[in-house]
Amino acid sequence: MFDRHLYNSTGDPVGTKLYVGNLPFSVSENDVASLFEKAGNVASVRAVMDRETGRFKGFCFVEMGTEAEAQQAISMFNGSELNGRPMIVNEARPPEPRNNRGGFGGGHRGGDRGGNRTRY
Fold first, then answer.
1. Where does residue 29 rank: exposed (0-12), middle (13-18), buried (19+ CB within 10 A)?
2. Is 38 exposed, middle or buried (0-12, 13-18, 19+ CB in 10 A)?
3. How many CB atoms lie under 10 A from the CB of residue 59?
4. How many whole angstroms separate alpha carbon 68 and alpha carbon 15?
């Protein structure tokens, strides 16, 4: 099992994966990779796409080669503009656990269910 102090919940080294937000919709993964290479080795870039439309949602995750390179990228790019939009760059957090209760069903809502009607 992973040591929680060295790895996050997905097994990635803590401190190398960055959240990059407020990106223009016209930006590609290659554009982001080219920009972040100025801060060091870019291990991967994953743009987040809308499931319904397949369009870019305006944010991505960039994994840098080392924690020092990730910190360099944060200091270089957080608040800097890309195509007129100030980027948000910070260390990515593990996803929040989801409640898998589903969207149907539910408990008894109260009220009369019609079993004892005297009038129709």
1. middle
2. exposed
3. 14
4. 8
Closest among 89, 93, 86, 91 to 36, alpha carbons compared: 89
Q: Specify the pTM.
A: 0.70
66 HSE (CA, 13 A, CB side): 5
22 DSSP assignment: S
* Contact assessment for residue 79 and residue 22, using Cβ atoms and an 8 Å cutoff: no
Q: Which residues contact 65 (CB under 8 A, 6 or more apart)?
A: 16, 40, 41, 42, 43
Structure token pair of residue 51: 């499931």
Strand ranges, E, within 79-118: 81-82, 85-86, 88-91
Mean pLDDT by 10 residues, the chain (120 residues): 43 76 96 97 96 95 96 97 96 83 58 61
Q: Enter the DSSP assignment of 87.
A: -
